[in-house]
Amino acid sequence: MNGAALGGRQMQRSAAPGQHLHQRQYSDHFVAEPPAGGGGRWIQHSGYQQVPPPFPMDSSRMWRSMQGGVGGEFLFAEPSTPPNGMRSSSQRRTGDDVSPSELSPGLLDLHSFDTELLSEKQVPGLYDGAAAFAYAQGRSFDDADPSIYANRLSNKVRMVPENNVSKSFTADKDKGSVAKIKVVVRKRPLNKKEGSRKEEDIITIQPNSNSLVVHETKLKVDLTEYVEKHEFVFDAVLDDDVSNDEVYRETVEPIVPTIFQRTKATCFAYGQTGSGKTYTMQPLPLRASHDILRLMHHTYRNQGFQLFFSFFEIYGGKLFDLLNDRRKLCMREDGKQQVCIVGLQEYKVSNVETIRDFIEKGNATRSTGTTGANEESSRSHAILQLAIKRSVDGSESKPARVVGKLSFIDLAGSERGADTTDNDKQTRIEGAEINKSLLALKECIRALDNDQVHIPFRGSKLTEVLRDSFIGDSRTVMISCISPNSGSCEHTLNTLRYADRVKSLSKGNNPRKDVSAAASNVRESTVLPLLSVFSSIPTPDEGSDISNEIDEFAWSKQMQRESSLSSLDRGPTMREEASSYADYFKDQRGRSSKTEEPTYSEETYDKGKVTWRKGKPDAYTVPTLEDKGRKMEPQTKRKDAEEEDLVIAHRKQVEETIDMVREEMKLLVEADQPGNQLDDYVSKLNTILSQKAAGILNLQTRLANFQRRLNEHNVLVSSLGP
Ligand SMILES: Nc1ncnc2c1ncn2[C@@H]1O[C@H](COP(=O)(O)OP(=O)(O)OP(=O)(O)O)[C@@H](O)[C@H]1O
C-alpha cells in the first residue's frame, strides 16, 4: 500500500476471505466534530467558519500525504469579515453553525457569472514593488515555513529567484511568456517490488537536460536480444530524485499569477497506473493556494479578490462531490452552452489550513481500487478547482464573478486491456471508461491547438466539465508520469508518445500540415549495437524522410516514424513499404528507383551482401555445392548470395509483419472503445496483412524458382565431372 504518498486516500479494505481484489473505496466516516488539532485548527482560523469540520483527521497521515511540505502552520491574517448585510445571499451567515448547503448556491453555474474583465491598466497597489519589498522585509512566507523554500537554491531544473514576491511580480507582469501548453515528464524511482524482481531502470536522463532516453529491449525472431533507444524531448524532464517542491516550481508556479488576469489554467497528470500521478498532484493545489493567497494579500491587496474551493470526482461517467458525502452531481448546459454543475459545493476560503483540510477530506473520499500495478489506484478523475472571483466594483456587496480558475486534475490510472486480466469486470469497465476519457481529452487538446471550430468536448464527461478551462485564454500544464522499470516499457513509451503529441501541439504545429515538425520533437528508435550490421541506416538526426501522410491517430504516425527508421526503409510509409518487396530489396542497396524490377547482377550481390546480411536461417537452408564436396563456380557463389538475400528479405518481411500486427493489436486493445473507429483499425490491419501476404507470396515464388534453377545448375555441374 502506498501509505506514505497516498495518505489522503481512504485505505480501508475488508480482508474477508473470498472478497474480490478490486474494491472501490468511499469514505463516509466523517465525524461531526473535528478532532483536536485537526478541524480545531480549522475552526480557529477559518474566515467564516461556514463549513463543517471536514473529516476525521489523521494529522500524521495528512503530513505524509503533503510531502511537498506546504506551510500549514502559517496562516494569513484573515481579511476583515464584512457585515452580513454586505454579503451575497449565498454567503450570508444565518447563524454560527451554517451548513455548506445553506451557503452554496446549490446550482453552481461556473459560467453564469461573466468572467470579470479587469482593467488592463494597472491599478495602484498592483505590482506594488515597494509593498512587496516591505513585506519581504518583515515576516516572509519563507520564514513562516522554511520547508517550502529550503530546496530552492538546489533546484536542478532551473534557477528561481530567492525572493518569491519579486518572482511573482515578474511572472504576473509577463503573462504572455507563460506557455499555453507545457509538457513536463516526471520519472518515479524504482519501487521495492520492482527491485526485488531485479527489474532494470530503463530511463536515462542527462542532468540539466530536457530530454530522456528509453532503452527498450527487444527480441528478434531468432530470439537474440537487442536494445532500441527512444529519445524524447520535452519542456522539462524531472528525474526520480526531484522533489515535489521542484515539480511545483517547474509546473504550476508560473501559471498561478495568470489566473488573476482572466485565465483558466489546468494542470493534469497523465500516466500509467502506479506511475506517480497522485504522488505528484496531491501537493500541488496546496502550494498553489499558498501562492494565490500571497498574491491576494499582497500584490492584489484590497482589490476585492476572493478564493473559492471545490473538489469533485468523475467516476464511471458520473460526478460526485468529494466535499459533500459524495453527493451525486448533475452537469447541465445552459442556453449559452455553458456548463453548470448542479449541487456542487463551492467554499470561500481564505487560509491555507482550511484548504489543506478540504484537500484531505476530498482525497479520503475519492474512489480508489486495486490494479495490477497499484494497490491503491485512483479509479476516478479528481478535479480540484481554485476559482478567483471578484465583484464588479471590487466590493463584496455584489455577486462575485469568476476572474480566473486553476483546475488540478488527477486522472485515473490508465491500464491497458491486456493488463487487466487479473481484474474483475468492474475494473475493466472502469478501465474502458477511463481510456475513453483520456482519448477524448487528447482529441480536445489537439482540436484546440488546431484552432478547430468544433472542439469535441462531448466526447466524455471529463472534457465536458473542463470545457471552460480549455476555451478562451487558457494555460495547460501536463505532467506525464512514467515508471522506470523494464516491465513498464510499453506503457512508458505510450505515455511519452501521448505527451509528445501534446508537446507537438504546444509548438503550434498543425499536425495535419507538418508532421516532420512534430517528429522533430522525438529523436527516437536508435537501434543499438546488436543491429550494428545495419550501419547504412541513417540516424534520425541525419534526417529520415518522414511521410507526409497523416494518420487520423497520433500513435499511427508514431509507428510510421518508428517503422521508417527501424525497417531500413527511409522513404515510404509503413503501408507503402509493406506493399512492395521489390522496393524494399532495392532500398537496401541504396537504389533510388522503386518502379523497375530488381535485377540480380553480380555487382548487386557484391554491394548488397556486406551491409545487411545476418546469416541464413535454418528454415531456408538448401544443400550447397560444398555439401556435395564440389568446388563452386563464381556464378554458383552469386546464386548462393542471391538465395541468402532472398531468405533474409523473406525473414525480414515475416518479422516486420509480426511486429506490425502485434503493434496494431496492442493499439486495438487500447482503443477498444465504442466510437473509437475500431472498424477503421480493423480494416487498416487487414490491408497491412494482405499487402504483407502478397509480398511474402512473391518471395516464396521467387525462392522456389531460385531453388529450381539451383538444382538445374547442380545437375549441370555434376554432369561436367570433377
Ligand atoms: N516521485 C516519487 N518518489 C517516490 N515515490 C513515488 C514517486 N512517485 C510515485 N511514488 C510512489 O509510487 C506509488 C504509486 O504512486 P501513485 O499512487 O501516485 O501512482 P498513480 O499514478 O496515481 O496510480 P493510479 O493511477 O493507479 O492511481 C506510491 O506508493 C507512491 O508513493
Automatic annotation (TrEMBL):
ATP binds at residues 271-278. Residues 180-505 form the Kinesin motor domain. It comes from the Eukaryota. The keyword Electron transport does not apply. One of its GO terms (cellular component) is microtubule. Keywords: ATP-binding, Microtubule, Motor protein, Nucleotide-binding. The keyword Transmembrane does not apply. GO terms for biological process: microtubule depolymerization; microtubule-based movement; regulation of cell wall organization or biogenesis. GO terms for molecular function: ATP binding; microtubule binding; microtubule motor activity. Residues 1-23, 72-106 are annotated as: Disordered. InterPro entries: Kinesin-like_fam, Kinesin_motor_CS, Kinesin_motor_dom, Kinesin_motor_dom_sf, P-loop_NTPase. Belongs to the TRAFAC class myosin-kinesin ATPase superfamily. Kinesin family. KIN-13 subfamily. PANTHER family: KINESIN-LIKE PROTEIN KIN-13B, KINESIN-RELATED PROTEIN 6. This is Kinesin-like protein.
